[in-house]
Design goal:
It is a single chain. It is globular, with a radius of gyration of 19 Å. It has 10 helices and 10 strands. The protein is of the alpha+beta class. α3 packs across α4 and α8 crosses α9.
Length: 356
């Protein structure tokens, strides 16, 4: 079926995975445990509400297609009712609230990469308005895309800082919207891990594009700057070296595998969507650095072509994506070229077959 005709059932996607919050909820530090538990409870409520309210899918509001974004930032004022008070509209000057300004800039950076890099007009390719709410809840340790808008917590100021500080986190969550409007990957098991990986890939590319970095210059971290100063770690995830982003008494050790040899079989976290995403993440990193230069220009284009090409099934597994990405490389750049070879090599290294 043409992906554009597939009913859309947006899922509730958070950047901090539940397995990490579960770990913190068992902390001997009462405040940390209480804050993690509160975030988990809020996420569970929102996840349930999302299932109930999206049975019929969603219909995007008609908007004129423009090469300019249409951004609105709201302030929840530490409550949980969305969207909150409108504090900055498209074209408004920066204000005194750095969180509002970062959210506004992040929405714009995401819009710009998808437009300039791939010719896509906003999340739905039809000029969808980009809305975000900041200062959500009290000590809320997460950020999420709820199927319609972005929402950012301020963090607890201890283990997690303000969730707008990492541009790749903003890009990550908005890319869930792109996936929702294209392949609509089911949020469970390998298709769910692909869903998460798409968000990490394009979140990283948005940061690289904004900083004008090459693949060699990029840090390939998701959530750099988000962890508190006393946490032993550098980010939530590493695409370059999955499993090395953090190793902390409170957060535990980063559980992401880099190859299929260490694939994690679990029923938690929707079948390990935030864990096993390390495998396709690493494949992208390997392909992008093998090709060199600006990662969004060739490796990113191949990933985008695969995601939006209409052949990626909602229940696709890693092998399906690998096969289609190799085909996309051949279709755009030719058989046997550097792009084709880089894709085959990357998927071989992580242990995912490209034929079948």
């Amino acid at each position: 079926m043409d992906a554009s005709l597939t009913p859309r059932h947006p899922v509730f996607c958070t950047v901090v995975p539940p397995h990490l919050l579960d770990r913190i909820a068992r902390s001997e530090d009462a405040r940390r445990a209480r804050t993690a538990l509160s975030t988990l409870e809020r996420d569970s409520l929102l996840r349930t509400r999302r299932r109930v309210t999206t049975v019929q899918g969603i219909t995007a509001l008609a908007a004129p297609v423009s090469d300019d974004p249409n951004r609105t930032v709201y302030d929840a004022q530490h409550r949980t009712r969305l969207p909150g008070a409108k504090v900055r509209a498209e074209g408004d000057p920066a204000g005194q609230d750095a969180t509002v300004n970062r959210a506004y800039a992040g929405l714009g950076a995401t819009f710009e990469l998808f437009l300039k890099g791939f010719g896509r007009h906003s999340i739905d390719d039809s000029g969808l308005a980009l809305d975000a709410t900041v200062h959500y809840g009290e000590d809320y340790n997460n950020a999420f895309w709820d199927g319609r808008q972005m929402v950012f917590g301020d963090g607890d100021g201890d283990l997690f800082l303000d969730f707008t500080v990492s541009l790749d986190v903003i890009g990550h969550e908005l890319t869930h919207g792109v996936t929702q409007y294209t392949a609509n990957l089911e949020y469970y098991g390998q298709s769910g891990a692909l869903n998460e990986s798409m968000s990490d890939v394009f979140g990283s590319l948005i940061k690289q594009y904004s900083l004008e970095q090459t693949a060699e210059q990029a840090d390939w971290l998701i959530g750099a700057g988000l962890l508190g100063p006393e946490v032993s770690g550098v980010a939530l995830r590493s695409m370059k070296a999955p499993g090395t982003a953090y190793d902390d008494d409170e957060l535990g050790k980063d559980p992401q595998p880099a190859t299929m040899d260490d694939y994690v079989q679990t029923s938690r976290d929707n079948g390990g969507v935030h864990i096993n995403s390390g495998i396709p993440n690493h494949a992208f990193y390997l392909a992008a650095t093998e090709l060199g230069g600006k990662a969004w220009e060739r490796a990113g284009q191949i990933w985008y072509d695969t995601l939006t090409g209409g052949e990626l099934a909602a229940d696709a597994d890693f092998a399906d994506f690998a096969r289609l990405s190799v085909a996309a490389a051949v279709n755009r750049y030719g058989d046997g070229g550097a792009e084709h070879q880089a894709l085959q090599k990357a998927w071989t290294v992580v242990g995912v077959p490209t034929e079948g």
